[in-house]
Each structure stands twice: as C-alpha cells, then as structure tokens.
Write a structure and sequence with these properties.
heterodimer, A: mainly beta, six-stranded mixed beta sheet, four-stranded antiparallel beta sheet, B: four-stranded antiparallel beta sheet, 0% helix
C-alpha cells in the first residue's frame, strides 16, 4: 500500500533560517506528490505539488523536488518568516482512486 | 480551484447525540471525500462520497456511525452518530480536481464531544 513518512517535529527556527522538512514515500505506480500547509485554526491549503520525477514544485519561497531514485519530496525554504509557522503535511495520490495519503505532519514554529 | 464551504464551523455536542456536517462546493465535482483529523494528528480518510450511490468507507469506518449523503455533484453531508468524546476531531471535506490531479479542502468542522 501507499505510505508517507515525514520528519518528526516540532521544528523551531529563528527568522531567516533555512528550512528542510524531510518526506519519503512508498507507493505503487507513479504517484503525484504534494505539500499541504495548515495555519493555526484553519483548514488545509495546497502549498505545492509535483507530478513526475525531477519536477520541482514551488510556491511562496518553498520548494520541493520529486526524487524518484530516493523516493523523496523534501520541503525547503531559504529564509523562513514568522508567518510560516504552521503544520506542514506531505501527501501523495497514486492510481485512479484519487485518495490522498498523508504523512504525520510537522509543526514548524519560527521565532522573531 | 474549487471554493468549498462547511457548516457548522464548530460545535460542542453531548455524548450520545448526532451531528450532521454539510459540505458545499461552488462547482460540480465527481469525487468528494471526508477526512477526520484527531487532535494533534494527521488526516485519515473516512470515506469517498459517491453521487447517486452509497459511500465507499475506509477500514475502521462504518456507515452506521458515519452515514454520508451525496444528493448531487455540489453537496454532501457527513453525520457523526451516537457521539462519544473519542469523536472529538476536525472533520474536513475535500474535492478532487479531475483535470489537475489535486485535492482542495474545506475549512473544516471542529467538533468537541463532552
């Protein structure tokens, strides 16, 4: 079956620090990969996605590259802001069912 | 992207009662899903809401506890029946974009059962 393994949190960084949140996956076929973000008290928002190997998804300064050889989709940002404090979920869709499989989520706190 | 609304946004309920959550989408979509997010946890798929037929439930979820309706392509309801404190969670509906292989989520319903 499909599974997503995310870096354990919580992660606490100072403003302008470099962020990496690791994500690896197991899937049948060729999955599409996603990062979702959940700000405090809100629902999930799609942050970025990649649909095939070597694709790079990017949005709001965040990036993630679909690495088929390492089955990874690590999230990075060069300089985090206090407003990036949120929970980040790695997820995948594989096959025709269109069901998302989520990782456990990583809580990020950015301090001023 | 689709605009999704949910009602209620939050509720506090007594043990043994039932709550029906509504999900409304601003466009017709084939695939709608219901997820549960327990406190501090990730999202777990409850079921796929199928228009015109019974919902498809994931392992560990049953129709008697979580009946789902899908009367048309823009609307669905999830009922949490005979609630207990363990049902305290955020319940989210989502829709799949058929052309772009993405899913979009509603704002969620935060349920507390006393």
């Amino acid at each position: 079956g499909n599974s997503v393994t995310q870096m354990e949190g919580p992660v606490t960084l100072s403003e302008e620090a470099f962020l990496t949140i690791n994500c690896t996956y197991t899937a049948t076929g060729y999955p599409s990969l996603f990062w979702y973000v959940q700000y405090p008290g809100e629902g999930l928002q799609l942050l970025l996605k990649a649909t095939k190997a070597d694709d790079k998804g990017s949005n709001k300064g965040f990036e993630a590259t679909y690495r088929k050889e390492t089955t990874s989709f690590h999230l990075e940002k060069g300089s985090v802001q206090v407003s990036d404090s949120a929970v980040y979920f790695c997820a995948l869709i594989s096959g025709s069912a269109r069901q998302l499989t989520f990782g456990s989520g990583t809580q990020l706190t950015v301090l001023p | 992207s689709a605009v999704i609304s949910q009602k209620p946004s939050r509720d506090i309920c007594q043990r043994g009662t039932s709550l029906t959550i509504q999900c409304q989408v601003d466009s017709q979509v084939t695939m709608m899903f219901w997820y549960r997010q327990q406190p501090g946890q990730s999202l777990t798929l409850i079921a796929t809401a199928n228009q015109g037929s019974e919902a498809t439930y994931e392992s560990g979820f049953v129709i008697d506890k979580f009946p789902i309706s899908r009367p048309n392509l823009t609307f669905s309801t999830l009922t949490v029946s005979n609630m207990s404190p363990e049902d305290s969670s955020i319940y989210l509906c989502s829709v799949a974009s058929e052309s772009r292989n993405e899913q979009f989520f509603g704002p969620g319903t935060r349920l507390t059962v006393l």
